[in-house]
Design a protein that fits this description.
alpha+beta, 14 helices, Triger factor/SurA peptide-binding fold, 3-stranded antiparallel beta sheet, globular, Chitinase A, domain 3
Length: 369
């Protein structure tokens, strides 16, 4: 749960959305002191967190209680945001006009490009921004107030939390690195002095470094699909087609780029010339991996059978495994430990705010209705 909490706490700093001031009375998910949290706010927060978890830790959803954890995390996020806003307001934290304008401008930058990535003129970018406000039923004045509140919270966190977080020293960073090496070498049982949550965090970091330092291949492929439940005749037809394509490639009758466009049934990768990106061991079906890691750069493989169909692989690049060196990752590890310290301090600060707050939870009642 520590990793989940980090995502929630980080979101509390950058996305402190104000409760909707809608004229229509909505059902409440909770009330924090005198501030309502609506069910629509709760549903939006849950959906946003679900997307964040899917991107940051896809294995989260394999847990039996993933739904309940997500429910709690979404509500906790909204409660924490409300508490931070209320504290910032009670302290009368000042946001200057220049800071507000910069905050508004930063948000507007997100509308400077079209969905296809092409740049928009200032006029079209402004129109896109205004259209989004209209879609969200938010006036410009309400939007500016929202940004002002966010900036107040950021200043509060900077003054009351970040300055209290203990930054890691060289000895702590080196000890963390040594534990990473133990994890990379399969010696997790030798990692000592950490809570279970801290150990899981460290293993997640080690997993990321393993991906970055492992032997990796840049592959392209042509795929002739074999649908689930295909008849023997259909399987044989797909196999014959794959071998016929390989024969064309070997004879020079067609090059790989054109063959991808003409034959590949993996439409998503075909749009990128069949590019599968960089892969490390464990990412590919075993039968495909066994062939891929024996290839030489520039080779086209014989057709390889997998549960997806028949693949013809092309190896574009091969990177040897690299040793994880302390000097190369010291700054990254320092940042990880600094974030851990900040998240822990922010969590403690929020616990302090909750002690003196009146928090009423209604969301369970709504679900049971």
């Amino acid at each position: 749960m520590r990793t989940i909490n980090k995502i929630v706490l980080a979101a509390a700093l950058c996305a402190c959305a104000l409760p909707a001031g809608a004229a229509v009375v909505e059902d409440l998910a909770a009330r924090v002191n005198n501030e309502p949290i609506t069910m629509s706010d709760y549903r939006k927060a849950r959906e946003a967190l679900s997307e964040q978890y899917a991107a940051a830790m896809p294995d989260f959803f394999k847990q039996k209680d993933a739904g309940q954890q997500l429910d709690k995390a979404a509500l906790d996020k909204l409660i924490d945001e409300a508490l931070l806003r209320q504290k910032a307001e009670s302290m009368k934290i000042k946001v200057y006009e220049r800071e507000l304008e910069n905050g508004v401008a930063e948000i507007k930058k997100r509308f400077s490009r079209a969905p296809d990535g092409s740049p928009l003129s200032p006029e079209k970018a402004e129109a896109a921004f205004r259209e989004e406000l209209k879609k969200e039923d938010v006036t410009m004045e309400e939007f500016r107030e929202r940004i002002r509140k966010q900036l107040m919270v950021q200043k509060l966190v900077q003054e009351a939390v970040k300055t209290r977080a203990k930054m890691p020293g060289d000895a702590e960073i080196k000890a963390y690195y040594d534990n990473i090496l133990l994890a990379l070498n399969g010696q997790e049982d030798k990692i000592a002095g950490l809570t279970e949550e801290e150990k899981q965090d460290l293993l997640a970091v080690a997993g990321r470094f393993k991906e970055l330092t492992a032997e990796r291949l840049r592959l392209r492929h042509i795929l002739i699909k074999v649908k689930e439940g295909a008849t023997p005749a259909e399987k044989k037809a797909a196999q014959d087609k794959a071998f016929a394509i390989k024969k064309e490639l070997d004879s020079g009758a067609i090059d790989f780029d054109d063959a991808v466009k003409k034959y590949s049934e993996d439409k998503e990768s075909a749009e990128r010339g069949g590019d599968l990106g960089y892969v490390v061991r464990g990412m590919l079906p075993p039968e495909v991996e066994a062939v891929a890691f024996k290839m030489q750069v520039g080779d086209n493989s014989q057709p390889v059978d997998s549960k997806f169909g028949w693949h013809i692989l092309r190896l574009e690049e091969k990177r040897a495994a690299q040793k994880l060196r302390y000097d190369a990752v010291k700054d990254d590890l320092e940042q990880v430990l600094s974030q851990n310290a900040f998240a822990a301090e922010l969590g403690d600060y929020l616990k302090e705010l909750r002690k003196d707050a009146k928090i009423q939870i209604f969301v369970d009642e709504k679900k049971g209705a």
